[in-house]
Design a protein that fits this description.
The complex is a heterodimer. By secondary structure, chain A is an alpha/beta fold. Chain A has a domain of 144 residues: P-loop containing nucleotide triphosphate hydrolases (Rossmann fold). Chain A has 6 helices and 10 strands, in the order βββαββαβαααβαβββ. Chain B is an all-alpha fold. Chain B has 2 domains: 161 residues, no CATH class; 187 residues, no CATH class. Chain B contains 16 helices and no strands. In chain B, helix 6 packs antiparallel against helix 7 and helix 10 runs antiparallel to helix 15. Classes of the chains: A alpha/beta, B mainly alpha.
Chain lengths: 207, 366
């Protein structure tokens, strides 16, 4: 269970988002909202990437008090991730595998599934934005989180990869991993119902 | 050409002095405000004679001038990146010698405070017949101004777009890359020229100081040389912080403790400083001193790095660096660098702990 309590994020004096109380249980959550409404900021806040006021707890682990354990339970990928261009995909996959204590066969499965083995030996600087996105999706699934946060996961990936992503989400949901995602494109996995939330007027509510 | 000079004066020179009014006030106060008015002349005469007669003091003054010049260059580079100043690049259309002359005038205008004080140094140098010191000061300053003007011409003519690219030898690493190699790889692959020149400057500083004749073993000479070397790493540290904010944001989401993150950073700077330590070791610096100096140097760069977690602003960083360098210089001179060593590490970790997750870069800084 992921709980946000009195969470507030401002940039300077501009309020971006304020959440008094919000709870995510199991399953998929689609966070909707217009451009600039604060969806990505909310995900960054939950991922512990940017400073904010308030408290966030996942499965009893408080972001502020047990920072390392919390980060083990929350995975996040940005809409347009940037990685050091001189590193190879393999470098990053190996690093994430080591830090998140993941199993090699699970990682190999993801590499095969997203069909990235043909280019991950090359430096990331040579990748197209779609290839970087695929790599970032693999990185998001490495490890054993409670929640995976995906910011615009369908942006820049080709149409062949979309069903592959759905399959992996189904597989991970069966393992008890939950998802929060934003998307301006249709996101529909028939076998997995999702709940929708709307970010509007600096706050978020269930639809 | 008068109109060009006027425009450049308004765009760059006036703005430079406006923006640095605070710094000039502090320097002015340190130079003239802390001494009783009756002793100002003798105080400055002592300072100038020290510059003329002590090689170490002269090198320290050179270091300050070098930092000031770097600050000027950084300011110009930043201004030239601003969209409203793009018209300055039209100067590329005038002939090379005119452009060089304009650039040199601009550099001299930015260095007016240094030039004014140097005039007194040279006058006293001639009066006291310290001709060699006077010559070295003139040569050093001329080199600074000519190199700065040459750089400005290079920048305006956009030759940096076709710049000489230095390919350092690549080391093939078969195993998973540990985090320190992310930082070092960025320097060797993305910024090889900056990295190379910082290293060359650093090693030259140490080499230069080690040439100072001393009667007996004196660890301060080596430490002061290293301190100048560390100052030349200020750009490297800034670039690594920029890289963190641009390419390593994902690191914040990974389950790594703050202490481990700090230690990764310490290992990065430990590796980065290996050439300097080797140079000191082959010049017979005692092992215990070498260990102390190494820890001091790592702590110095760590504090620079963690200071940038508060604010990633190059101009403010260089101002802070100047003060930090001078304080460190005095502490080394008074043989209490080991106290600073402890403070550097503790303060570095404190800043890291406090600001690592608090920092949010303004997009234009990265």
């Amino acid at each position: 269970m992921l709980i946000l309590h009195h969470v507030k994020k401002e940039y300077g004096s501009n309020l971006i988002i304020q959440v008094d109380q919000l709870q995510f249980d199991s399953g998929l959550y689609w966070i909707k909202g217009n451009n600039g409404s604060g969806k990505s900021t909310l995900l960054k806040v939950i991922a512990g990437m940017i400073p904010f006021e308030g408290d966030i707890v996942v499965d009893g682990i408080d972001l502020r008090k047990q920072s390392v354990e919390y980060r083990r339970l929350i995975h996040y990928i940005e809409a347009e991730p940037l990685y050091p261009p001189f590193l190879t995909g393999i470098d990053l996959i190996a690093f994430f595998t080591q830090v998140r204590k993941a199993k090699k066969d699970e990682v190999d499965f993801l590499v095969q599934k997203f069909n990235i083995s043909s280019f991950i030996t090359q430096p990331i600087g040579t990748y197209s934005s779609g290839m970087v996105k695929k790599l970032s999706l693999v990185l998001a699934f490495i490890g054993h989180p409670a929640y995976i946060l995906l910011d615009e996961p369908l942006v820049t990936i080709d149409k062949e990869t979309v069903p592959l992503l759905y399959e992996v989400i189904e597989l991970y949901t069966a393992k008890g991993i939950h998802f929060l995602f934003t998307s301006h494109q249709a996101f529909d996995i028939p076998s997995l119902p999702h709940r929708e939330l709307l970010v509007e007027n600096h706050t978020i509510c269930y639809l | 050409m008068l109109s060009v000079t006027k425009v450049l004066g308004k765009v760059l020179v006036a703005r430079f002095y406006e923006r640095n009014a605070g710094l000039f006030f502090v320097v002015f106060y340190l130079m003239f405000g802390i001494v009783e008015s009756s002793q100002i002349v003798s105080y400055h005469q002592s300072l100038i004679y020290a510059t003329l007669t002590s090689a170490i003091f002269q090198l320290m003054v050179f270091g300050v001038w070098l930092l000031y010049s770097l600050k000027c260059i950084q300011f110009i580079a930043e201004q030239l990146r601003q969209p409203q100043n793009q018209f300055v690049f039209q100067l590329a259309l005038i002939n090379h010698s005119q452009l060089f002359s304009q650039s040199l005038q601009l550099i001299l205008l930015l260095h007016l405070p240094v030039l004014a004080y140097t005039t007194f140094i040279i006058a006293l140098g001639f009066q006291s017949q310290n001709y060699i010191s006077v010559a070295s000061i003139i040569i050093f300053q001329a080199a600074l101004y000519l190199a700065s003007a040459r750089w400005l011409v290079y920048r305006i003519q956009a030759q940096h777009l076709f710049r000489f690219k230095l390919d350092l030898p690549r080391i093939t690493w078969k195993w998973p890359k540990p985090l320190p190699l992310f930082y070092l790889g960025h320097l060797t692959t993305q910024l090889p020229t900056v990295f190379f020149f910082a290293k060359v400057a650093s090693l030259l500083c140490i080499f230069g100081f080690l040439q100072i004749p001393v009667d007996h073993y004196e660890v301060r000479v080596a430490t002061l040389g290293l301190l100048f070397g560390l100052a030349s790493h200020s750009v490297v540290v800034f670039e690594l912080r920029k890289m963190e904010e641009r390419f390593l944001l994902f690191m914040r989401t990974l389950p790594i403790s703050l202490l481990n993150r700090f230690l990764y950073l310490a290992i990065t700077y430990t590796i980065l400083l290996i050439p300097e330590i080797i140079m000191l070791a082959i010049n017979h610096v005692h092992v215990i001193d070498l260990a102390g100096i190494y820890l001091f140097a790592i702590g110095f760069l760590l504090l620079c790095h963690t200071h940038l977690l508060k604010k990633l602003d190059n101009e403010k960083y260089l101002q802070w660096m100047l003060g930090f360098f001078l304080i460190s210089f005095m502490l080394v001179l008074f043989k209490i660098y080991w106290v600073e060593l402890i403070v550097l590490w503790l303060l570095g970790y404190r800043y890291f702990k406090k600001y690592y997750y608090q920092f949010e870069a303004a997009s234009e800084t990265v």
